[in-house]
Design a protein that fits this description.
binds NADP nicotinamide-adenine-dinucleotide phosphate, single chain, 338 residues, 4-stranded mixed β-sheet, alpha+beta, binds flavin-adenine dinucleotide, 5-stranded antiparallel β-sheet, 20 strands
């Protein structure tokens, strides 16, 4: 384990923002992490735990220690007739976990195909897409407290999962280093094609009996066509969460905007499509200097080359302001801002 000084983070965040880490280390095993936790650099500095950097915005140099987690290993643990437990090290690419499960016909995460980043970061915001969320197959996770270095196991309840949310974004923000996750996958998968885009892609294939492999393939195709590839245009996926509001607030918006896009989430609540709000506030494809919104999906803010984190942040503030003025809805960032 080596602690380096003044390291450029441009290649460690998918926004491609230039920023320096005062201290930087890469961790490949739990024993290296235990060694790191005992060092004075770890104890005395602010820390940023880093996976693939696909859900962060760096607004300046990071004064403290960046810990890039590369813990490897995917293992299939015990099987029961219904469920199979799959374990992945925090540094394993999330999509490798999905591919293994799809190839073994283990269901529950096929709709999360091609989400960038690592397995260790997946519980952070309870990653979700096309109707699935990791919480639905989550078994447990392991890691270390940054406060006192003790090792702990978290069950699903302890993670307090919510919509793109968990305890690790609140009480334990920067307070817990996830080293391993375990999922309980379904041995008898039931493909979920409830999202229109997935259903119509599957229909085009004209298949009678849909498998999770078909669903995964369809989703990979949709994502490749619709979303900007961070290796070409810097971005961190959706910048904001879809707002959940009360039904009576929806009625108020509908008076002036009858076409507002929403989905039912409960008896009294609905989820507004943030992309619709941003587009209808006039932001689709707009640029301010080197920062802008993506032409196909305005919920994705992009770095058109050389933007600073502060420029992206001020674009996001402008978007929030116009959406609030027009619809009286407050957008909340999904991306983690440092
Ligand atoms: P990072 O960006 O490195 O970190 C994210 C946060 O987690 C940071 O706060 C970091 O400190 C913390 N963290 C990272 N690793 C650990 C760890 N081991 N222990 C404790 N804390 C940790 N997200 C979705 O939910 N659904 C999508 O469909 C989706 N699509 C995307 C598409 C694109 C093109 C992009 C660029 C992003 C997309 N995302 C999506 C967002 C992102 O990929 C996910 O949130 C992903 O889980 C982030 O993983 P990461 O390893 O890159 O995390
Ligand atoms: P989309 O299919 O154009 O849909 C727009 C929004 O409507 C989505 O945000 C989605 O909410 C919601 N939606 C659509 N159909 C729905 C249904 N049947 N039931 C409930 N909600 C529905 O969205 P998109 O931008 O192309 O993304 C497709 C999927 O990939 C979405 O699930 C999205 O979350 C995910 N994605 C996430 C990120 C990220 O960074 N977080 C980036 C790209 C794509 P949900 O977002 O709640 O699903």
């Amino acid at each position: 384990m080596e602690i380096l000084k003044n390291i450029q983070l441009k290649n460690f965040n998918t926004f491609g923002i230039e920023a320096n880490a005062e201290y930087f280390t890469e961790i490949f095993s739990e024993s290296e992490l235990e060694e790191l936790i005992k060092t004075s650099v770890f104890k005395k500095n602010k820390r940023l735990i880093l996976g693939g950097g696909s859900n962060i915005l760096l607004t300046g140099d990071f004064k403290g220690l960046v810990i890039k987690l590369n813990l490897p290993g995917i293992n299939i643990l015990n099987d029961s007739p219904e469920k199979t437990i799959l374990e992945a090290g925090a540094g394993v690419l999330w999509n490798d976990v999905v591919e293994l499960s799809v190839n073994k016909n283990l269901g529950g995460i096929e709709n999360l195909s091609l989400i960038p980043g690592t397995a260790g970061a997946a519980p952070m915001q309870n990653i979700g897409a096309y109707g699935q969320e990791i919480k639905n197959v989550f078994y447990n996770l392991e890691g270390y407290s940054t406060a006192d270095g003790h090792k702990e196991l978290f069950t699903s309840d302890m993670c307090k999962f919510g919509y793109r949310d968990s305890i690790f974004k609140h009480e334990l923000k920067n307070g817990f280093i996830i080293t391993k996750i375990r999922l309980a996958l379904n041995n008898n998968p039931e493909p979920d094609i409830s999202y229109n885009a997935v259903r119509s892609e599957i229909e085009k294939l004209g298949i009678d009996k849909v498998t999770i492999k078909d669903v995964s393939k369809a989703i990979c195709k949709i994502r490749r066509e619709k979303l900007p590839d961070p290796s070409i245009v810097g971005n961190a996926g959706s910048f904001f969460k879809n707002p959940i509001i009360r039904r009576k607030e929806l009625k108020f918006i509908q008076r002036n905007f009858p076409g507002v896009a929403y989905f039912d989430t409960g008896e009294n609540t609905v989820k507004l499509a943030a992309a619709w709000l941003i587009e209808n506030a006039g932001w689709k494809g707009k640029r301010i200097g080197k920062a802008g919104t993506h032409v196909n999906q305005p919920l994705v803010l992009v770095n058109y080359g050389g933007a600073t984190g502060k420029e992206i942040l001020s674009l996001s503030d402008e978007i929030k302001k116009t959406v609030k003025e027009k619809f009286d809805v407050t957008l909340k960032e999904e991306v983690n801002i440092f």
